[in-house]
Amino acid sequence: MSVATGVLTDKSNIINNYSLSQNYPNPFNPSTRINYNLPSDFWVTLDIYNITGERISQLVNEEKSAGYYSVVFGSSKLSSGVYFYKITAVNKTTGNNFSSIKKMILLK
User: Fold this and answer.
1) Which of 9, 37, 47, 62 would give a disulfide with 19, using CB separation of 3.0 to 4.6 Å?
2) Number of structural domains the chain divides into
3) Which residues are paired to 96 by β-bridges?
4) Long-range contacts: 60-66, Cβ < 8 Å, 24+?
5) What CATH number has the domain bearing residue 86?
6) Highest-confidence range of 37-41, 58-62, 75-79, by mean pLDDT?
7) Neighbours of 46 (CB within 10 A)
8) How far is CA 63 from the centre of its chain?
9) CA-atom Rg of the chain in angstroms
10) Nearby residues of 55 by Cβ (< 8 Å), 6 or more positions away
11) How crowded is the C-beta side of 66, counted as CA atoms within 13 Å?
């Protein structure tokens, strides 16, 4: 009979920082995947902007728990060009904020 003497923690799955990954694939057509990580609970918005800075889509606008997230962006109604995606994460309890912008290219 064996007795458990400790708990092993896989630290590779612990999220310590915020991150917004480059979309994949990039360039893309007709859809692309955007991944992001949160180290704790945050109110998250993930928006898509055109080259003139006009918001054309909002993919996320809700509270999220700590973890890894993936969102698919479909572009069937858009023309070829350069677009930007921006994440804003706000922790209402601690006041911590995170914001990041990345560029993506749609080729049709």
Assistant:
1) 37
2) 1
3) none
4) 60/87, 64/38, 64/89, 65/38, 65/41, 66/15, 66/38, 66/39, 66/40, 66/41
5) 2.60.40.2550
6) 58-62
7) 22
8) 13
9) 17
10) 47, 48, 49
11) 7
Residues in a beta bridge with 67: 38
**Cβ–Cβ under 8 Å, residues 97 and 89:** yes
Tokens for 59, please give them: 């993919």
**Domain range for residue 96?**
15-106
DSSP 7-53: ----GGG---S-EEPPPBSSSBSSEEEEEEEESS-EEEEEEEE-TTS
* 19-29 residue pLDDT tens: 999 999 999 99
